[in-house]
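Long-time lurker. I teach an intro course on protein structure, and each term I like to show students one example going from raw sequence to a predicted 3D structure in token notation. This year I'd like something fresh instead of my usual example. Would anyone be willing to generate the tokens for the chain below so I can use it in lecture? Attribution to the forum is fine with me.
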Amino acid sequence: MISILIALWTAWTPASTEAEVRAVDSLDLERYAGRFYEIARLPNRFQERCARDVTATYTVRGDGKVTVVNECETEEGARLRAEGEAKRAHPDRAVAELKVRFAPRVLSFLPFVWGDYWVLDLTPDYSLALVGEPRRRYLWVLSRTPRIDDESYQRLVSVAESMGYDVSRLVRTPQSGSEPDSP
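-- Reply from a regular --
Happy to contribute to a lecture. Here you go:
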């Protein structure tokens, strides 16, 4: 009787359709370092003024943390710059789950100033990255070059969609920069 009730309960209980958000298994911070161009993003409050030419530059420090410099141009042509730092969420593992903060360093002891920064997809040559966080509020498509081909873009969007991100909200980022001298 109990097995019949369990079977009926299982049949009537909707299965969880929420896909799992997973970071890539391994991230070499030295290879990830350098400049990335933002190809697209989900709209967010801290980038509201960024109209074009958005970049993120990562520099690995001697203490194992990463200096993060985000830059963009506003509609009026002003350059905005934000500097923060990132660290591995699990220092003993190479998984691509990082924590990032842009709050003043004096507040870094507060857990809530650190946000999740997960590399969800990464090409073997580290030229393209899909970055998000487990609650699906933030998502970025990043490239070492200002433009990528449509096939590569669609592949990354498909990965995001398979993890439950609302890719219909993605906004392409205009890039007027030239190709970088080096990654």
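Some talking points for your students: The chain has one domain: 29-172. The CA atoms of residues 118 and 150 lie 23 Å apart.
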